[in-house]
Specification:
Elements (H helix, E strand, L loop, with lengths): L4 E4 L3 H12 L4 E4 L3 H9 L7 E4 L2 H6 L6 E4 L5 H10 L8 E4 L5 H12 L4 E8 L1 H7 L2 E6 L4 H11 L18 H30 L4 H11 L7 H10 L22 H12 L4 H13 L2 H10 L11 H34 L5 H7 L10 H11 L10 H24 L4 H13 L6 H12 L33
Parallel strand pairs: 1-2, 1-4, 2-3, 4-5, 5-6
Antiparallel strand pairs: 6-7
Helix pairs in contact: 1-6, 8-11, 8-12, 8-14, 9-10, 11-12, 12-18, 14-17, 14-18, 15-16
Length: 482
């Protein structure tokens, strides 16, 4: 019997995706670099299911129906390239290789061109949802060789999460590395969401001096309102989880965060495309700062902050905090979708923003009721230049801005860092400011580097240089970067 799909890599995500595929009626051939892992899987969770394991790559490939569909669930980077080279001698024209890991979109673009040059297809697919999502239904974001999609679509749409209307949380993103780019931005937004929630938790704990039980109750309440999301839901569970001694486990966890690189890639991409991704960037840097645990402990003993005592009505401030979190979330997603728009415009990917928001509604880590609003915004106006200008989001943020300002002001006075909430209001104020002080910045650049400037009384695109000191020449720099 020939198998529908092949999956190489039986770590947590690979194993669970295989079981998901089989549960939807597909037979799967599996391969793992260490055959003992394959044997363990076959004797355990895969026992009695339409799953066959192989020790040799050639046998693994030969067990698949044509065109062969091989999904790689491997560590990003060289391991993917190395395994592709192992596969190539055994593949036939039209066969499809799928990378389901968190690969850099530049690598995916390169691999698409490389395999297509050999008469093969390559798909780079973002898969979000963690262990549970892989097993029960993730959000899937494929892109690459469009000719491969009709062969892969029946499998991917079947194993993806489903939302209330029954639609699958999977859709074709576009050519080249579009799928992995969308997944990368998803992860960047995820960084922002997580940091915003952490800041709200810190505010409740350190400014409002709330108990673990009180904080737990607030997150439960928030998850029943407009902030309802997977991350708020798990935060409610985490804040209520007690250790063996009956004390909150959260208080015993070291405050040094880790990261795997997708947040950094998102910030890199924002810099390359010239997109103000300030809030999401701050979430990445917040993780970096947290990792300097020893330095922070030492500094806390030597540097005293402003003495502050919260003397306002706690319930009113809690209401402000929830509204501030929602407002900052709007800013974060505005920036994330701004990055998607910039990349699509520059690379010609023609991304469908309503569809992206739709497939993020289920299965993935950032799934939330909030995404319905984004789907509606881009469905009504596909040419929306900035998400904040949608009537719903514009009305909400104008109404919420007072709460966001009060929370940030209180945090500043209390000496509690809230970089993402602060970044949210700064982005909002910057976006709504018709004249920023960048005129002075341009004058400075022209003064020391002859980089030239545009004038408000002349057409855009016409450049000028001033001999500020009377001692410079007329030669100007030919390099200008936005």
């Amino acid at each position: 019997m020939k198998h529908t799909m092949g999956v190489a890599g039986l770590a947590v995500m690979g194993e669970n995706l295989v079981l998901n595929m089989v549960s939807k009626g597909f037979s799967v051939a599996v391969y793992n670099r260490t055959y003992a892992k394959t044997e363990q899987f076959l004797a355990g969770r895969a026992q009695g299911k339409e799953i066959s394991g192989f020790q040799q790559v050639e046998d693994f490939v030969d067990a698949l129906e044509s065109p062969r569909k091989i999904m790689l669930m491997l560590k990003a980077g060289p391991p993917v390239d190395q395994f592709i080279e192992q596969l190539l001698p055994h593949l036939s024209p039209g066969d499809i290789v799928i990378d389901g890991g968190n690969s850099n979109y530049h690598d995916t673009t390169r691999r698409v061109a490389y395999l297509e040059s050999k008469g093969l297809h390559f798909i780079g697919s973002g898969v979000s949802g963690g262990e549970e999502g892989a097993l029960k239904g993730p959000s899937i974001m494929p892109g690459g060789s469009a000719g491969a999609w009709p062969y892969v679509e029946p499998v991917f749409t079947a194993i993806a999460a489903k939302v209330d209307d029954g639609s699958s949380c999977c859709a074709w993103m576009g050519p080249e590395g579009a799928g992995h780019f969308v997944k990368m931005v998803h992860n960047g937004i995820e960084y922002g969401d997580m940091q915003l929630i952490c800041e709200a938790y810190h505010f409740m704990k350190s400014v409002l001096e709330m108990s673990a039980a009180e904080i737990h109750s607030v997150f439960i309440e928030w998850n029943n309102g407009e902030l309802s999301s997977y991350l708020i839901e798990i935060t409610a569970e985490i804040t209520g989880f007690l250790d063996e001694d009956g004390e909150p486990l959260l208080d015993k966890i070291l405050d040094a965060a880790g990261q795997k690189g997708t947040g950094k890639w998102t910030v890199d991409a924002a810099l390359n495309f010239g997109v103000p991704l300030s809030l999401i960037s701050e979430s990445v840097f917040a993780r970096c700062l947290s990792s300097f645990k020893d330095l922070r402990v030492a500094a806390s003993k030597q540097i005293s902050g402003h003495v502050y005592s919260f003397d306002h009505e706690k319930e009113t401030m809690l209401k402000d905090l929830g509204r501030a979190l929602y407002g900052a979330k709007i800013m974060s997603y505005t920036q994330g979708f701004g990055l998607l728009q910039a990349s699509s415009n520059e690379l010609g990917w023609n991304l469908n923003y309503a569809e992206i928001a739709r497939i993020w509604r289920g299965g993935c880590i950032i799934r939330s009721a909030f995404l319905d609003r984004i789907t509606d915004a881009f469905t009504k106006n596909p040419g929306l230049t900035n998400m904040l200008l949608d009537p719903y989001f514009l009305g909400m943020i104008v109404d919420i801005q007072g709460s966001l300002r009060r929370v940030v002001r209180t945090a500043v006075m209390a000496g509690i860092p809230m970089p993402c909430h602060s970044g949210a209001i700064s982005y909002f104020d910057g976006l709504r400011t018709a004249r920023l002080p960048a005129n002075l910045l341009q004058a400075q650049r022209d003064y020391f580097g002859a980089h030239m400037y545009e004038r408000v009384d002349k057409p855009r695109g016409e450049w000028f240089h001033t001999n500020w000191t009377g001692e410079g020449g007329d030669t100007t720099s030919t390099t200008y970067s936005k």
